[in-house]
Amino acid sequence: MVYSMMKRFIDITGSVLLGMLFSPIAIVTAIAILFDSPGPVLADTPRRVGQNGKLFKLFKFRSMVINAHKKLRTDPKFASLYTEYKKNSYKLKQDPRVTRVGRFIRKHSIDEIPQLINVFRGEMSLVGPRPYYQDELIEQQKKYPHTQNLVKIVLSAKPGITGHWQVSGRSEVNFDKRIKMDADYVRKQSVVFDCVILLKSPGAMISGRGAV
Fold first, then answer.
1. InterPro entries, alphabetically (predicted)?
2. Number of domains in the chain
């Protein structure tokens, strides 16, 4: 209970302060997106799975062409790409849907700045497990059946903007290893552990290590 209260206080305070700090970058990014490709500033992706399995709309700068999520799953010309996407734990190193601006903001996690709104609203935390897509969790548990209990542990916590696996390898690890790291975080979560992850996060953002 004490940890939950302290974590929520840190989330509210941190989301407000970081929102003000990153507001100039957010404005420049929004303008760059509008000039770079047609479509909205924010990504038009489906809802993510939050705490206790509750679905929520995740705010994120658009880094791909419009309807990218749907096109990958329904457009025949992306069939082989979708197969690769699922095979590689829902990650693509070479994704033709990504825009020029998108490549840069994804590499340095700038596309995630709007998630501070989700943190302020209580749907996410600054630190926590990755916010997964619903179809991703279903398909990956079929591929890695031994992860089912780990998924339950992960969904008991709020997803985060940054987390244990993001600062320890990010997109370089497959789902089975990533979900285990997320579950390990949930089991060991504490204010000190959260602070350690937060301190490591700027370095991961600047270097873009493992990002796609």
1. Bact_transf
2. 1
